[in-house]
C-alpha cells in the first residue's frame, strides 16, 4: 500500500513556501514582542522596578493569549 505519491514527493516550491512560513512565524514572534516593549523603554531608566513588573505582566499576557 504505502503513502500516496502526493505525500512522498515534495517539490522545490513546497520547500520554499515552508521556509517562508517558518521565517514569518519566527519574525512575527520577535517583532510582536518588540512592538509592546519598545514604548516602555524610557520607563526602564526612571523606575526599573515598575518597568519590570509591567513587562513581566505584558509578556505573561502575550504568552497566555494563544492558549
Automatic annotation (TrEMBL):
Membrane-spanning intervals of the chain: 12-38
Keyword line: Membrane, Transmembrane, Transmembrane helix
The name this protein goes by in its record: Uncharacterized protein
Source organism (scientific name): Wuchereria bancrofti
Amino acid at each position: 500500500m504505502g503513502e500516496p505519491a502526493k505525500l512522498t514527493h515534495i517539490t522545490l516550491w513546497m520547500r520554499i513556501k515552508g521556509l517562508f512560513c517558518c521565517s514569518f512565524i519566527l519574525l512575527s514572534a520577535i517583532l510582536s514582542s518588540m512592538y509592546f516593549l519598545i514604548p516602555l523603554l524610557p520607563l526602564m531608566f526612571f523606575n526599573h522596578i515598575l518597568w519590570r513588573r509591567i513587562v513581566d505582566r505584558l509578556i505573561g499576557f502575550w504568552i497566555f493569549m494563544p492558549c
